[in-house]
Design a protein that fits this description.
Elements lengths: L4 E5 L3 H10 L3 E8 L2 E6 L10 E6 L2 E6 L16 H4 L3 E8 L4 E4 L7 E6 L1 H14 L7 H8 L1 E6 L10 H4 L11 E8 L2 E8 L2 H7 L5 E2 L2 H16 L7 H9 L6 H8 L5 H5 L6 E7 L5 E8 L9 E2 L2 E2 L4 H20 L9 H4 L7 H10 L16
Parallel strand pairs: 2-8, 8-9, 9-10
Antiparallel strand pairs: 1-11, 1-12, 2-3, 4-5, 6-7, 6-14, 10-11, 13-14, 15-16
Helix pairs in contact: 8-11, 9-11
Bound molecules: iron/sulfur cluster (2 copies).
The site of one iron/sulfur cluster has 12 residues, from helix 10.
Length: 382
């Protein structure tokens, strides 16, 4: 952690939200909805999941009441920030027959504040930036929404059994790239936040919020809590070595074992903060006078996703699961210079049959080099 830290009382969290709102930001953050902690618009700090935690395990999630009034006493639910930058469906253009007019969408910029971004999620946003902004073809919609996005980061002071960010080097502590960063300091005797400004706008906003300079005890407590959070994570994955491991084990028998359990439901890709595959759909009205093209989220687990030249390149569940995991942990390094996994654990919790990618990688590692005796011809296409 760096220096220049401030202390803000829990009671002034609402003032921070109000200061952001007064500057025109739409505040987006965690709240309770649909039996989970989701990301939605916040009007005040009372919309935050105060006093809520969650029980998570492979294939299971439920909200639980905490014994305290922690504001950030949970980890991650099924939503990710990507939906505010890269919506699940988006119109790309319209064509009208009369006058042959072609109207591409002109995405409007939006002032939005992401309130409560965890360290792994911040890394996921950096990965999406590489995909949508730092490539030859910039995504204009993503660029417009990303430009004025203010990030209020939160260092994790609790973890779930699904988390493995510590082993991936992506959490639980932020290492920059935020406007403000909060660490919740909660004991039976106090409830404050350690606040660090990471940008000029963040500093300016804190001038409008009551606070004082943090002391050494505040910083020491924050560091202790974050360290304890890293230590309590029971899951781990060696993300860098996984790239080479998977590349040389494309015919490993484990792919068939996991495919026997996988439902090819695509849940894991929908909840993943970095998965970005999409499809396009064209529609026309009944008169044929007006047509639109829409982009919608898609998944490599959907059979039609690999349909090309009269056939499906990945017709088996085995080839689709292998495509997902090898792309995420291996192919991304070649494409984007980073792993596609940030260790958030969502795909473990929200997989209906509890498939755990850390377990799959470990199983392949345990029998590194084993080759399936009966690989099917179709698998060669994956
Ligand atoms: S692959 Fe799973 S653990 Fe990794 S970032 Fe995606 S959802 Fe999170
Ligand atoms: S790994 Fe789990 S979540 Fe992903 S497609 Fe298979 S069954 Fe669905």
């Amino acid at each position: 952690m760096s220096h220049n830290r401030m202390r803000m009382a829990r009671g002034d969290l609402g003032a921070l939200i109000a200061a952001l709102s007064d500057r025109g930001y739409r505040i987006l953050g965690p709240t309770v909805g649909d039996g989970a902690i989701i990301y939605d618009e916040l009007e005040s700090d009372t919309d935050l999941p105060v006093g809520w935690g969650e029980d998570q395990s492979p294939g299971a999630y439920r909200l639980v009441r905490r014994q305290d009034q922690a504001v950030f006493g949970f980890t991650l639910g099924p939503h990710t920030w990507k939906k505010f930058l890269y919506p699940a469906e988006e119109r790309l253009f319209q064509v009208t027959l009369e006058g042959m007019s072609f109207q591409p969408e002109a995405p409007a910029g939006v002032k939005q504040a992401f309130f409560g971004v965890r360290a792994c999620e911040r890394q996921a946003l950096s990965i999406l930036d590489r995909v949508f902004l730092e490539n030859e073809h910039v995504d204009s919609g993503y660029a417009a929404r990303r430009r004025d996005t203010f990030i209020v980061a939160v260092n994790c002071t609790t973890s779930s059994p699904a988390c493995f960010c510590a082993s991936m080097g992506t959490g639980p502590e932020h290492r920059g790239d935020f406007d403000l960063c909060l660490t919740e300091l909660l004991t039976p005797k106090r409830h404050d936040f350690l606040v660090e400004a990471g940008s000029a706008v963040g500093e300016a906003i804190m001038k409008e919020v009551p606070h004082c300079e943090a002391d050494e005890a505040d910083v020491a407590q924050a560091e202790k809590q974050i360290e304890a959070t890293a230590k309590e994570m029971s899951r781990s994955m060696d993300g860098d070595n996984a790239a080479q491991l998977l590349s040389r084990n494309l015919e490993h028998p484990r792919w068939h074992e996991v495919a026997d359990r996988c439902l090819s439901c695509a849940n894991c890709t929908m909840v993943c903060p970095t998965c970005f595959c999409s499809t396009v759909e064209d529609t026309t009205d009944l008169t044929g006078d007006h047509a639109e093209r829409w982009r919608r989220w898609d998944s490599c687990f959907n059979q039609d996703f690999s349909y090309a030249a009269g056939g499906h390149a990945r017709s088996s569940t085995m080839s689709r699961y292998r495509q997902w995991l090898t792309h995420k942990l291996s192919g991304w390094h070649e494409q984007f210079g980073t792993s596609g996994c940030v260790g958030c654990g969502r795909c473990i919790t929200w997989c209906p049959v509890g498939i755990d990618l850390t377990e799959e990688v470990a199983a392949i590692r345990a029998a590194d080099g084993a080759v399936a005796a009966t690989s099917k011809a179709e698998d060669c296409h994956a």
